[in-house]
User: What shape does this take?
Amino acid sequence: MKLDDYSKEKKFEATVLASERITPEDADVEIRELMLEVDRADFEFAAGQSIGVVTPGPHDLSHDFHFRLYSVADTPSRSEAGKPRITIAVRRVTYIDDYSGERYDGTSSNYLCDLRQGDRLIITGPYGYAFEVPDDKDANLILIGAGTGIAPFRAFVKHIYRDVKDWRGKVRLFYGANTGLELFYMNEHRDDFEQYYDEDTFEAFSALSPRPNWADPIAWDYALEGRSEEILEMLDDPKTYIYIAGLEDVRDELDEVFSRMTGSSDRWQQRRAELVAGGRWTELLY
Assistant: This one.
């Protein structure tokens, strides 16, 4: 589904309640957490969904507005007046034009990162299907997030241990990034998953690029293959569910790793097809 396919007819006004940088100041990457309050009480959303942000124009190619999606990064909450509050994580993006070599700022990400408390914006949505928690509390969950793909899992894990409670199945979170400074929500500056480390069922692992300055890919092989025995055992269990979030490239990267773990590409494609058919494989890719 392309961005143009998402309905933007129903728009909501929102106010920035807070904007906090959640990567260290000395990190090359700036990621901010924004808490938004929606004006209308009838805006309903769930953890695992996304909202659209409308950046006012005009922009290049005479566009009146710019549109991007951002995953909900926390469980739903409301103000005392009943207004919905949404948390999103935004990475400030810049890129180099392959042809001209010029540097450009990402339109929506810079717009959002520059907003401050009290500023107003327009949102749409929500979109997508929420990550559904299995009814069986003995179910095992494998969560794999890359970059800002960790945001929906922050909400998902919080929902499991705060709202569902008494979870007995294994919860294994694998978080990929280029450097340790990019592990937002799970770094020395701020670790939102720390509160779950005492849970017998929860473990979190990082997958970092071995040579970040060389733009090497995220080390999924090290993080996943290093625990292949447990992961393959979990995949054989019909109570295991896999959730993936991040950029679309992560699908191909994981296919390579799981193909090696299962012995061949054909075996993995068959296994993944079975997981998808059984409703045990869910992707939130963008």
Q: What stands out?
A: The two ends are 9 Å apart (CA to CA).
